[in-house]
Amino acid sequence: VDENLQALMNGRTGSGRRLVTKNDIDIVSSAEGTELLKLLETAWHAQKPKLVEFFDMTTASEAALKSLIDAADDTRTAAENVMQYVSTTTRTTTLIEVHVLTPVPLTGKWAAGQTFRTALRLAESLINQDQIILPGYELKHDIMDDECDGGKGADVVVSASTAKDTYVALAGMGCNDVCRQVSTLSASLKLPFLSFYCPNPDFSNVAVYPQLARLGTVLEPHLPQIMGELKVRHAWSHIF
Asked: Which residues partner with 101 through β-bridges?
């Protein structure tokens, strides 16, 4: 990362020749570009020690993980700003933005949305950078906290869709109560709805939930039975 950051700040070319390979990087000399690179450098230097400390831990605490995710989010934002600046100064075409409304449980009784957010940002950046899956388009997920609460999730969807009418889909949401309430809204908004979890088997009824699709495995109500059988088979004394 440090090497790539220096390449962005100072440029990278072969000695004594012009830019002729895909790995060459021209130096950013404008005031705006230089300032964005400085912000990226500051964010990375704040994240790096937390990243090193995290991987040196035998057991990572929840606080350490949250601190690392927050720092990584700042670095990602700074990196996206740099990437957007560099791409707009070199591309002759403009990518069409595709916005996806993405409420996830960042807080609440099941805050798995923090992990989902990290994976989502990585996938989003790869799709936008490679321009293979959606050539000519730039995918943007507007991530918001649904607090793993159905009422809050519904409020988030209504408020966001009212403020911006360019959303093409709903995504995220891993809590059953949120999926149940938002599925009705997605039908009225005429938006496809893809959840990363929501394991309640009731959602498999496409007649009742025609808009909802899920990426997670449906484990309810059979998971306790499965775990009980595995405990007996392998003589486990207890299950965490």
From this structure: 142, 170
- Alpha-carbon distance 24 to 100, whole Å? 34
Q: Is the dihedral of CA 28, 33, 39, 40 positive or negative?
A: negative
Report pLDDT digits (tens) over 59-115.
777 887 888 888 888 888 988 888 888 777 655 456 889 999 999 999 999 999 999
Q: Considering the entire predicted model, what is its pTM?
A: 0.58
Nearest Cα to 93, choosing from 131, 64, 126? Answer: 131
